[in-house]
Amino acid sequence: MTYKRVVLGEPFLPKQTVPVWVIEADIRFEAKGGPAKVSLAVPGDQTSLGLLSEEGISLGYGFTPAEDQQVNTLHRQVVWARADAEGKQRLFYRVVAYQKLRPQNLRDFTTQTPPRDPDYEEEPLITAVKAIVEDAREHSADTESFTSYVIGQFSQKEPSQNIRFILRDKDSILNRARVIQQILLAADIEVHLVRGLHLEESHKLQSSIPALLVRKADKQWAAFLADKPQPGIPSPFLAWQRGGESLISIDGGENASIRFSVMRDRRPLMEVVKDSAKRAGNRFAEFSIYNLPIDQQNAFRMLLMIPLGALIIVILRNLVGIKTSGTFMPILLTMAFLQTQLITGLVIFLLVVGSGLLVRSYLSRLDLLLVPRISAVVIVVIGIMASVSIIGHMLHLEFARSITLFPTIILAWTVERLSVLWEEDGGKEVAIQTGGSLLAATFCYFVMGSRVLQYMVFTFPELLFIVLAIILLLGQYTGYRLSELRRFSPLSKEDAP
Question: Given this model, what pLDDT does residue 73 score?
Answer without folding.
Answer: 53
